[in-house]
């Protein structure tokens, strides 16, 4: 669906997420029909029944978290938070701090493009498990993923198109023509963002910090491998680093396994919010076997046991996603990534020897 707002997408300064979420909150507050359509969606997918809620935007919490939309019931309890996500990474507060500030019997709803649904859910799953949450996961629909937590708290991950289409249908049913036109504007903007494979270049993208950041990622990979060699955990005899269009790779051997630590733009953009990846092979005299079925099965078990996000595409190597520490010094990032790599390789090696 084309819209006037969508036509000016490339001229919008600041956050498209803010525009979309402010527009949605405006419609939900103006229309009982829109409000009830959203609450019916929550009832169907989270088994929670709310009457009409009042919506506000950018409500700052005790930990300086700032959800895009917060919804309050008649007793002023915050029972629904809606967070708009297009292509920005999760913040440090998401989703754990957002969940903690909600009352019991509540929902944190994450709205994202269809192309990001699975990767966003995967990272949220890891963060919840790392925070000690027990998760009851279900997928009521192909574009809905639900994490049910204790105290009837829920994380509901779905697409902009799913929610906006439901709201639009109800507005059309009730002949709310003015708001129908308004939501068409938001749908047009979100559809354009959803399918826009080239993100518009912003002035910040052209600053020296961008190449400096990418160079720092490459340097991290080299420094990790160098430290492994100094510790005799790994060696790189007869192996060369490999720069390529998709990123950068360093091969090494550790615990009788072949391995590659790499920066992968493809996996970063399509599978998880991290540039750092590890893959493991069975080394032979002439050719490393990355797609060995027995090894991939071991990797799947290790990934599940250690709660690591992974990518297991048929005919390709099994990849472990490595998440770096945020907001800390280089040496701490290196030590943490080294620890993750050692844990994975040693676990795979132990499983391999026991088979």
Model description:
β8 (about 240-245) and β9 form a beta hairpin. α2 (about 15-30) crosses α3. The protein folds into two domains: about 5-195, no CATH class; about 205-355. It contains eleven helices and 13 strands. The strands form two sheets. Strands 1-2-3-4-7-6-5 form a seven-stranded mixed beta sheet, sandwiched between helices. A six-stranded antiparallel beta sheet has the order 8-9-10-11-13-12. The chain is α+β, with helices and mostly antiparallel strands. The chain is elongated and about 70 Å long. The longest helix is centred in the last third of the chain and has 25 residues, at about 330-355. The N and C termini lie far apart (about 55 Å). Helix content is about 45%, strand content about 20%.
> What is the count of DSSP helices, taking H or I runs of 4+ residues?
11
What global shape is seen? elongated
- What is the element string, with H for helices and E for strands? HHHEEEHEHEEEHHHEEEHEHEEH
Strand-residue fraction? 15-25%
Strand order of the largest sheet: 1-2-3-4-7-6-5
The overall number of domains is 2
End-to-end distance: 55 Å
Low-confidence stretches: 1-14
The level of helicity is 40-55%
Q: Return Rg in Å.
A: 23 Å
Largest sheet: 7 strands, mixed
The structure class reads: alpha+beta
Overall mean pLDDT score? 88
